[in-house]
Structure formats: C-alpha cells, structure tokens
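So, who can interpret the following?
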Amino acid sequence: MRSSRIWTRLLGVEKTVIEGVEVEESEADEIDPGDVLIVVHARPARGRRLRCGVCERRCGKYDNGEGRRRWRALDLGTLRAVIEAEAPRVLCPEHGVTVASVPWARHGAGHTLAFDDTVAWLATCCSKTTVTQLMRIGWRTVGSICERVWADVEASVDLFAGLRRIGIDEISYKKRHKYLTIVVDHDSGRLVWAAAGRDKDTLHTFFDALGAERAGKITHVSADGAEWIDAVVAARCPGAVRCMDPFHVVKWATDALDVVRRDVWNAERGGKGRTTRGSKSLKKARFALWKNPEDLTAGQQAQLAFIAAAHPLLHRAYLLKEGLRMALKQGKDATEVLWDWVIWARRCRIPAFVDLQRAIVRHWDAIIAAAEHNLSNGLIESTNTKIRLITRLAFGFKSPDALIALAMLSLGGHRPQLPGRQLA
C-alpha cells in the first residue's frame, strides 16, 4: 500500500492528495507547548478543486485568499495532527466571493470532518470533561461542532416524514424565563423539532417548516393547558384531535389540594404564626396527601386516618383529588365518570376545587380525547427530563442553538457515527 493511501486512511479523508508530511514543535502559546505536531501537506484531488464552499459548484478562481491554513485532524496516537493546504477564494455566481471548499472539512470549520463527527458522537455519549480532555478542545468549540454536524444531518434527512401524532411542550433551559419549545413524535419516540422561545410565534415557526399539506395530516396533538398552544394548533391543523395531558390535570388537583392543606394549616396555627402540634402534623402529612394510596407507607396511612378524623374538609379535598385521578383512568367510560366528578366538585363548597372543575369543563373535549385515545404527554415529559440533563452538559455554550443541536443529535434518532465504523 502506498504511503499516501496510508495517510488518507489515518486522517479519515477522501478525494485528497497527500503532498508530504513533516514534524514540528508546538508553539509556546498553544495548548501543549513543546509537544510534537504532525503537519500533513495536502491538496484537493483534481475533481474537487476550485469549488464554492457553500454550494460545491465549480467556479473560477478569485485570488489566493489568506494563503495556507491548517485544519485540526484526529490525533495520531498521542500526537496532535493538522492538515495544511492552500485556501484560495473563488467567485460563485450565487454566493459571490467565498473560500473554496476542501473535501476534508466543512465550510468555515477549523477541524476535519472526522474530527467533527468524533466530537459530536462523544458529546452525545460522554461527560463534558471527558470530551474536552480527550479531544483537547474547549467546551464552546464542542458546541460549534455540534451545530455544524446537526446542520448537515438536518439538510440530509426529512425530520417530518410520517408525522401523525405529536406532542408539544416547553422546557426552561436558563434563568430569567428562557425556554425551549419542543415537539416529539408519539409513534417513533423521536424529538423532531426544538426552538428557543415559548409563544405563538415560536410554534408558528414549526408549522411553517412543516408545511400546510403535512400539517393537515396531523391526527393527534397532545399538550398541557397552555392557551398559546391551543390557539396555534386550532389555526394550523384544525382537523387534529387535541388531547389534554392527564398528568397536568391531576397536577391541577394536587395544587388545589395543597391550597386547602395550607388553609387548614394556617387555621390550626390560629392565624398568629405560632407552631402547634396540629400544624406540625399537617405539615408532615403533605406527602401522604400527594402520594397515590397504593404507594403509602404504614405511617402515611396513619396520617391520613388522623386527617379524616380531625380535618374532614381536608380529607374531602383528598378524596376529590383521588376521585379525579381514578376518573381519568377509565378509558372510554371516562366521559360519564368524569362528569359525575364535576358535579361532585361543584357541590363540594371548597373554592379551590370549584375553580378546578371550571377549568376541566373549559378543556373538556381535550381531556376526554386523551382518555379515549390513551394519549398523554408521558413521552414528552421523559424527553424533557433528558433535555434537562443535556442542559447541564451544555452549560457554557454561547447560544441556545448549540444546546438544540446537541439535544437533536442525542434524541432525534440521528446520532452521528464514529468515522470508519459500519452502521449497526
């Protein structure tokens, strides 16, 4: 095998002519001063020369640009390696004057394709410290690489193919009300879209990308009770069945129960802020009130028995919460059972639950549809949990775009492959 072919295999490059290899000492201001640096002099193969860096169209040469430049390649053993080549500029009829493309790197990148793909794969599988120390790069550089790799994936695959049942939700990724709006596919379990923002304009961006024809094929949309989601879904895919996530309905009931518990707790203290034995027992009983009956410990069951005897109003609120939870599990019989619960809540004379039944009536069709079609936001809540972990990893990225790229690479079903490996 010729030495030039060995070097192309080592570097993971194609359509490249190796002109020579030399070894030099790293500069004092570099990451590893005094270390040996392998410099591979290369040029694009004949058919890959003088092409636009954006559209790959063959163009006329404009000038020599800034002369020779270097691209960081994968380390060779323990030694860093770079590819050095001329970087002329070409005149593209569509994109104007731009740096000519090279077959070993993406346009505007300072790393080879193999280096980018390796870093992106590591970012989806390893910790921040592992990636930065193994690849000897900064964490912000990892974010930029993830953006480049995801841009290539996004351009090569149809992310919205076969979308029928989707879930929409928002998740906070930063302090001061910084949110991402995310969309998942219930059928494949993939994260299909994410963008910074939490309002109608952000969600309209998704439906603009989806297109009117595909939006018309959406059959089910699950979400929480956010009005901005309801309004956009009603306008962009009016034929879809809107499903209200049962988890959020039960959360409303739990919040209403906690309002009642705090009122009883304050009354037990006499309204003067003094701690009493009764107020202490109520404060410790909140977990017993929140948990499902089948998950209660013996001590928590005793606490509930005490509440039933000493605080009948709070116990009635607890029964209302549990009654709603069971009503939402009745499937096709949920309509009749839930309506019985609404009548019970209207007459309970507990303000928090009277308000709750009004909210349930307001979202009646979506709640019943979720029970009948057995569709919830469980998948999207699971996705949110994974994105929260990714958000912790992405701390230090300079923009939400890098976070979104990392989330899409990890959860979008298109995780990058390591260079030189066959698809499993």
